[in-house]
Amino acid sequence: MIWYLKEGVGPNDPKDSGRSTDIDPLDEDWKHIQPMDWSIDIGKSKLSVTEVWQSGRHLDPTNLPTRLKVTVLRGRTDLPALYEDYVDWGGGQRQLASEAFRDVVEAYDPGIHQFVPVQVENSKGEPVEKQYFWFAPGHRIFAMNAEKTEPPMKMYPEGPTLVNPHSDRLPGFYSPRPPVEAWKPVFHLDRIGDRDLFCDGEYPRKIFISDRLKQAFEDAGLIGACGRGQILAE
C-alpha cells in the first residue's frame, strides 16, 4: 500500500487539543520561491505556484527564509512554540521537517530529497529545541493507473505541443471532488519502484510514502508525520 503523507495527531503526540500557532519569516521573501526546474514534463504549462512545494522538484533556496518566528496563539504554553517533526503549513504551501524526520527519510531515500536548514524562534526570539529544515520531495514520477483510478482521471486533449510522459496513453490529471470516501487512486507498483517518498505529476499537491516509511516514522516516534488513506499500488 501507499499512503498520503499528512500532518496529524498520532500516538506520540502530546495531548494538545485546539493548539494554534502563527509562523512569520524574519528574513527573505517566500512569495518568490521557485523550483530549480521549471521545465514542462506534462501537458502544456509549467508547474503552478500552488504545487511547487509538493511537486517532487527541489526549490531554489535563494528566497527561502533562514529564520522563522512562531507565536502560540491558543493552546498549551508549556510546550515549545514548535515541536512537531513534520509541519504541513498552509495545506501544502510549505513544509518544515525536524532533524529526526530528515534522518528517517535519508535512511530510505538517501540524497534525493531537499532539506534546507532554518532557525525557528519563539515569540521571545529564543531558538526552539529542535533543528528544523525546509523540506521538498525530490522524486517526481508518473505512476498512476488511469484504467483503475476512480473517479476517472481527466485526460489532456491531443495536440502537437502536448508533452506526454507516457508511451502507452495520453497524460491526465487526478483532481477529485468530495466525498473523500469516493477517492480511489491506483498506482502502478513497478513505476514506483523502490521509492519510499515521492510526488506524482498527475496527482498534484500531494506527497506519498510507502508502507515501510510510514512504519519507520511510527517506530522513530515522530510527532505529526502520519500516513493517512491507504492507496492501492499493484
In brief:
Pfam families: Imm11. The protein is mostly beta strands.
**How many beta-strand segments?**
14
Protein structure class: mainly beta
What share of residues are in beta strands? 25-35%
How many strands, which pairing sense, and closed or not: the largest β-sheet?
6 strands, mixed
Q: Low-confidence segments, ≥5 residues, pLDDT <50?
A: none
Overall average residue pLDDT: 92
Oligomer: single chain
Strand order of the largest sheet: 8-12-13-1-14-11
Please give the domain count: 1
Portion of residues within helices? under 10%
Cα separation of the termini: 9 Å
Q: Summarize the helix and strand pattern as letters.
A: EEEEEHEEEEEEHEEHE
- The shape is globular
Radius of gyration: 18 Å
What is the count of helical runs?
Answer: 3
Domain Immunity MXAN-0049 protein: 63-224
Protein name: Immunity MXAN-0049 protein domain-containing protein
Organism: Roseovarius albus
InterPro entries: Imm11
Report on the architecture of this protein.
InterPro entries: Imm11. This is Immunity MXAN-0049 protein domain-containing protein. It comes from Roseovarius albus. With 234 residues, the protein is mainly beta. The chain has one domain. Helices cover 10% and strands 30% of the residues. It is built from 3 helices and 14 strands. A 6-stranded mixed beta sheet has the order 8-12-13-1-14-11. Strands 2-3-6-7-5-4 form a 6-stranded mixed beta sheet. Strands 9-10 form a two-stranded antiparallel sheet. The longest helix is centred in the middle third of the chain and has 10 residues. The protein is globular and about 55 Å long. The N and C termini lie close together (9 Å). The mean pLDDT is 92.
